[in-house]
Design goal:
The complex is a heterodimer of chains A (518) and B (346). By secondary structure, chain A is an alpha/beta fold. Chain A is built from 17 helices and 21 strands. Chain A has 2 domains: 234 residues, Rossmann fold (3-Layer(aba) Sandwich); 182 residues, Rossmann fold. In chain A, the strands form 5 sheets. Chain A has a 6-stranded mixed β-sheet, sandwiched between helices. Chain A has a 6-stranded mixed β-sheet with strand order 15-18-19-13-20-21, with helices on both faces. A 4-stranded antiparallel β-sheet of chain A has the order 2-1-4-5, with helices on one face. The chains are: A alpha/beta (518), B mainly alpha (346). At the A-B interface, helix 10, helix 11, strand 17 and helix 13 of A face helix 8 and helix 9 of B.
């Protein structure tokens, strides 16, 4: 049988780093092939080479049995290769139909002028794939799941032999993940080979026919999904046995007895943006030593809530009582958590530039900052040549370690963690979750571990309260003492007896009738 | 690649590319590039006097406006208005010098310098307010403010500030007390050049060694990251960059009058505020490097006259070379990025 796609001894370097080293990879027609690996293992690089976005330095690429030298995504597209990117590539102001037409050669005739039969064609294809898509609204107003379905439909409008999906489930609610997988199975049955780049081992094992594991640019394993376990895969990814993510840190009991003073409270907080409410009448109290999990599908007001808690967004109505300093791991590390052109030292300085301890007269104590950055790198296991390395050259996982490390460093009474393990590999996920759980149980854990530095930030007297905002239900369930769900700007507390995937999943999709209990 | 060496290499490459293109164009025009460049070099560096009295004197306004532009650009404030701020500063300095009823240089010099800086800052405050309060792009507003300043200067030297005898469109000579003393005996080099160096060093220390400078660079790199990761507002930093930039450009105008022309007239500046953009970009916005690039441009200007006299090449060629430098810097920068590694890794 001819392979849908094949790589032979493919090598790709970026500067001194070998992202892929002599990798062989085969994708059979009609199979779903899970591609696993730690951050920086080369998964995305492999997918981008197949999609024609990167040229290999050595080795050969075959599509549909023919040896090809792809020079652009357009060429790959012409050969039937389509890719759904981690960050969607849709024009926000265009409708779903316009986006689909734009991408498919020959179908684009200008805005609002698509041939009527093209609309019918798109509708028919959507029906065939059982994809529910909104074709006539600007995609900017659609939810992440809806946008992704448009992206998938866009990729499948013409003959597609190879479909590449880069971490498609990271942004979806559990039910949406099931929906996506059902679509992928139908697509595969029709003969398309699918490469699924992913982090969540359970998900991959649930849907994939075969899995390939990359480690530091090398292929270490290719096996049928039925013959491997999640533990085995995790071990292959890291090269050593690891605990299952988070399991080492079972959810603690909620604070008992005397309720301590909250570190932060929100009362009736409403935030609007040009008339559209982003937060509606949110009440919230964060107590020291607790982890408050906030679940929800992306785009339901979590970002605004985080900005209010961090003190950079003032409520339009209601009151926010906040501690002096708040640690905040923002969701978008590339745009908000880091400056890519800055060194690790400079990025760490974001937490220290206002502290008297890092000032000598008028001068910023860069030597002190560098020392702190160095110990942060050791502690968070940041893999980089030196603290002088620019953040943009780090892999996603290492970038997140820098951001998380820096926010742990703030002598915070409260930590807001937005999807802190998104895009992280198994090992880093375990480390970050352990750190969050540890912070909540130990008074001033973050500050104490930094007493190796010359001038540790003043330690708070009680453990920080932690707000964990995540679309990853497993993460929420494993770490949280209390759980609330955000739906369309409202915050709905979930009673302890309903802390289950199903119950929370239903709430996330807005299944409850309006308002809900406070 | 080394963080210190790369900018030097790219700037040198840009200059080399500029000279190569200029040489080709000169050859096409029937001139001998070698002879032309030799004349230019003699004009700029031929004697100590050429160097101090021409190259460095002409570098001074470029140094100050170049620093003004570099600081603003560093904060991602696209101040194209150094030309206008320069005129505002010159006018304010002249007005204070003529109208102030004191004659001690110890009082007059600081007062005029302060007035010039304040006027430049005020001129920059208009686009700063429009940007921070209304979100109006500063590229257009700073540029348009230039015309306002230039025409205002024309009006003033024809009217209220015109010399009493009313012959030329120029002001009276400023009193001796308001003139900048010479820096070296028997040359025309004045204290303004030293002031430029001091400001360059101060800006460099500020940007690299202070928390405020770090915040300014952060806003320039990513205003959103500054707010989210640095927990400070970009607005005040933008204001600071705008006002300081305007103040330095304002000083440039007055220092030219106080050190060289001793009066204000129409067409005081041949477009230093615009050439400053090339000076700053070639220096990759590094204040210390601006000292070097300003001298390079000062040399071009000083050598231009000699080029015309000795090699018969019109002086406008120098303006062409200045424009080529901007193009070359942008091209070299982009090529460098492409060469240094096609894409990110993840």
């Amino acid at each position: 049988m001819t392979a849908a796609a094949r790589l032979r001894g493919v090598t790709r370097r970026f500067g001194a780093v070998t992202a892929l080293g002599e990798v062989d990879f085969e994708l059979a027609p009609g199979e779903i092939h899970g591609l696993l690996g730690e951050n920086g293992a080369g998964k995305t690089t492999l997918a981008r080479i197949l999609a024609g976005l990167l040229a290999p330095d050595a080795g050969g690429v075959e599509i549909g049995g023919r040896s090809v030298a792809l020079r652009s995504a357009r060429e790959a597209r012409a050969l039937g290769v389509a890719m759904v990117h981690q960050h969607f590539s849709l024009v926000p102001r265009f409708t779903g139909l316009e986006n689909i037409a734009l991408f498919n050669a020959g179908a684009w005739t200008g805005r609002g002028t698509e041939a009527p039969d093209y609309r019918a064609l798109v509708r028919a294809r959507a029906r065939e794939l059982k994809l529910e898509v909104e074709l006539d609204a600007p995609v900017a107003g659609l939810g992440v799941g809806e946008r992704q379905r448009i992206e998938v439909l866009k990729a499948l409008m013409s003959e597609t032999g190879v479909l590449l999906l880069d971490e498609p489930t990271a942004v979806l609610a559990p039910r949406e993940v099931e929906g996506l997988f059902a679509v992928l199975r139908r697509v595969a049955e029709a003969g398309t080979g699918i490469v699924l780049v992913a982090h969540k081992l359970d998900e991959v094992l649930a849907v994939a026919d075969r899995v390939t594991v990359l480690r530091r640019g090398r292929r270490v394993l290719t096996e049928e999904a039925g013959k491997v376990t999640a533990a085995g895969l995790a071990e292959a990814m890291v090269g050593e046995p690891v605990g299952r993510p988070g399991r080492e840190h079972p959810p603690g009991r909620g604070p008992r007895g005397l309720e301590p003073e909250p570190v932060a409270t929100l009362e009736g907080v409403t935030v609007r943006s040009g008339g559209t409410p982003l937060l509606r009448d949110v009440d919230l109290a964060v107590r020291p030593g607790e982890i408050l999990g906030i679940a929800g599908v992306d785009g339901n007001g979590q970002r605004t809530l985080a900005a209010v808690l961090a003190g950079i967004r003032t409520p339009d109505k209601g009151t926010a009582t906040l501690p002096r300093e708040v640690g905040w791991i923002p969701q978008d590390r590339g745009e908000e958590g880091l400056v890519n052109d800055f060194t690790i030292i400079e990025n760490v300085a974001f937490a220290l530039h206002g502290k008297a301890a890092y000032r000598r007269g008028p001068w910023f104590d860069w030597a002190g900052v560098e020392e702190t950055a160095g110990s942060l790198m050791r502690e968070m296991d940041v893999r980089a040549e030196s603290p002088e390395t620019t953040a943009g050259t780090l892999s996603g996982g290492n970038q997140q370690r820098v951001v998380a490390g820096r926010e742990f460093l703030r002598s915070a009474e409260m930590l807001v963690a937005e999807s802190p393990t998104r895009g992280l590999d198994v090992k880093a996920t375990v480390a970050v979750r352990a750190r969050i759980a540890g912070l909540a149980t130990t008074p001033s854990a973050g500050a104490r571990e930094h007493q190796t530095t010359r001038r540790p930030p003043a330690a708070p007297k009680r453990p920080p309260g932690i707000v964990l905002i995540s679309a990853d239900l497993d993460e929420i369930l494993e770490l949280s003492h209390r759980i609330a769900v955000m739906v369309r700007g409202r915050l709905i507390p979930v009673p302890r007896d309903r802390h289950t995937r199903t119950a929370i999943g239903e709430l996330m999709l807005g299944a409850q009738q309006g308002g809900g209990p406070r | 690649m080394n963080r210190t060496l790369t900018p030097v290499l790219t700037a040198t490459a840009a200059l080399a590319a500029t000279l190569a293109v200029a040489a080709a164009l000169l050859a096409l025009g029937g001139h001998s590039p070698g002879a032309v460049f030799a004349a230019l070099l003699r004009g700029a560096f031929g004697t100590w006097d050429r160097f101090f009295s021409f190259t460095l004197v002409r570098a001074t306004p470029l140094l100050l406006t170049g620093l003004a532009v570099a600081l603003a650009f560093k904060a991602r404030v696209w101040n194209i208005g150094a030309e206008g701020q320069l005129h505002a500063g010159a006018l304010a300095g002249v007005a204070v010098a003529i109208l102030l009823p004191v004659h001690s240089p110890l009082l007059v010099l600081p007062a005029t310098l302060a007035a010039a800086a304040a006027a430049g800052a005020l001129w920059a405050a208009v686009p700063a307010a429009m940007k921070t309060r209304m979100g109006v792009g500063e590229v257009i507003t700073t540029l348009l403010m230039n015309f306002v300043a230039v025409f205002l200067a024309q009006f003033l030297v024809q009217g209220p500030l015109q010399e009493p005898r009313g012959v030329f469109n120029q002001t009276d000579e400023i009193p001796l007390a308001a003139r900048l003393p010479a820096l070296l005996p028997d040359t025309r080099l004045h204290l303004g050049f030293l002031l430029g160096i001091v400001i360059a060093v101060a800006l460099w220390l500020y940007l690299t060694r202070t928390p405020g400078g770090f915040r300014l660079r952060a806003v320039g790199a990513s205003p959103r990251a500054a707010e989210v990761s640095g927990r400070f507002r970009a607005g005040p930093v933008v204001w600071l960059a705008f006002l300081t930039s305007g103040a330095i450009a304002g000083l440039a105008g007055w220092i030219q009058v106080a050190g060289v022309t001793h009066r204000m007239y129409e067409g005081l500046s041949p477009g230093w505020g615009y050439t400053a953009i090339a000076v700053a970009l070639l220096a990759r916005l590094n204040p210390l490097a601006v000292v070097v690039t300003a001298i390079v441009f000062g040399a071009l200007s000083a050598g231009g006259g000699a080029m015309q006299r000795e090699a018969g090449v019109p002086e406008v060629w120098v303006r062409g070379i200045e424009a080529l430098v901007i193009l070359a810097v942008l091209t070299v920068d982009r090529s460098w990025q492409v060469l240094a590694g096609g894409g990110s890794r993840d």
